[in-house]
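pasting for the record
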Amino acid sequence: MTTSTNSTKLGSPVADAIASQNAAIDAALRDNFNRTVAMFERVRAMFTQQRAARQAYRELSELNDRELADLGIARSDIRNVVRGKFPSRV
């Protein structure tokens, strides 16, 4: 009498379960990697935006009061202009 077990056959329920588990782990790892990459992209974008804001603040601060008045802003408004919270007068 010959006995065979399902665990030794290719395509057995155990092998299918292991393959399914491995696929789920691979999908989770890919998802975590993609989320990590997206997080670093957001951090990079934030630093880029902050660098641009500092540059704009620096450039506006270097203008004299008359040049700022020609732009329609006062020296005390520079911070709000850079933050994008300055009401436009269009």
